[in-house]
Amino acid sequence: MTTQNLGLELRYLKTLKAIHQSGSLVDAAGRLHLTQSALSHQLKELEHRIGMEVFIRKSRPPRFTTAGLKLLELAEEVLPRFKATEQSLLRLAGGKSGRLHIAIECHSCYQWLMPTIGEYRQHWAEVEMDFSTAFNFAPLPALSRGELDLVVTSDPTPIDGIEYIPLFRYEMLLAIAKTHPLKEKEFVIPLDLQNEILITYPVERERLAVFYEFLDPADIDPADIRTAELTLMMLQLVASQRGVSALPCWALAEYLDKGQVSAVRLGKEGLWSTLYAAIRIEQKEQPYIISFISSARETCFETLTAIKLA
Q1: Based on the number of CB atoms within 10 Å of its own CB, is 191 exposed (0-12), middle (13-18) or buried (19 or more)?
Q2: Higher pLDDT residue, 161 or 9?
């Protein structure tokens, strides 16, 4: 009796997990930094090795066969163990201890950043971590001075010695009350906001994409500006018809699902921004920094919807 070696490889498991999570071969290819052709070739190679199809062709989203589901089950078991071992080896290679003081300029990032920190601390317990918001100070100059080690920002201001590593791209949407007249529009133009109260985070106007990428180029100002520090507070104001607010798609997802507010695109093509991890160039090779950024990317694609690879 002979036994057959199917030749399963880790890359196949990563590919199937990416397809399952993204619901699209195109998005999975982008997440894995592959062309769609390379992804298709890899799938055919896998199916040739196991002698079975792994998902139903032309089904949207991809519907996995029994064999595909078995492999997905294996991926869920193996990939976390692989990642944990990989991080352990990074710690052994050096830099297992250090300091990671983080600040965020993106005030709605808690939804995915806190799970990232929780998962990260399980593997890097020796790293001294601190976390703060950036409402009352300028975090990027503090990063440059060495007072911080990483800043999450959507405003990559050029500063000597600072490198911006893209995490993901996301769309800003205009949150409006359920009965707002703009609800009937496919998208809004800058002129539509001329008579609106715009609710924003307490951040300088020149650092808000709704101004520098949408309103200012059209030389349009809202009727008034109101600030609030918490996303929940902003959306309560929106729901009670006391203004509108431009917020990241993921920050709105829960409230849209519950029917508490509505949303409309900003411009025909949408208003897209990129979120970055800013670090000092001198620290970019530190294993615990590399691991945190990797964990942040992975967590955001697992927990957020409607984001793209940067």
Answers
A1: exposed
A2: 161
Q: pLDDT by residue (tens digit) across 211-228? A: 999 999 999 999 999 998
pTM for the model: 0.68
Give the HSE-up count for residue 175: Cα atoms under 13 Å, Cβ half-sphere.
Answer: 32
Fold classified for 169-272 = D-Maltodextrin-Binding Protein; domain 2 (3.40.190)
159 in Cβ contact with 151 (< 8 Å): no
- Give yes or no for a cis peptide into 61 (omega within 30° of 0): yes
pLDDT digits (tens, 9 = 90+) for 50-106: 888 998 877 788 889 999 899 999 999 888 888 878 776 766 566 566 788 888 876
CATH superfamily for domain 97-167+274-308 = Periplasmic binding protein-like II (3.40.190.10)
Helix (H) or strand (E) holding 64: strand 63-64
Q: How many C-beta neighbours within 10 Å does residue 135 have?
A: 14
- Is the pLDDT at 27 greater than 80, yes or no? yes
Could you tell me which residues come within 8 angstroms of residue 36 by beta carbon, excluding any fewer than 6 positions away? 25, 26, 29
Dihedral sign for Cα 218, 204, 130, 255, please.
Answer: negative
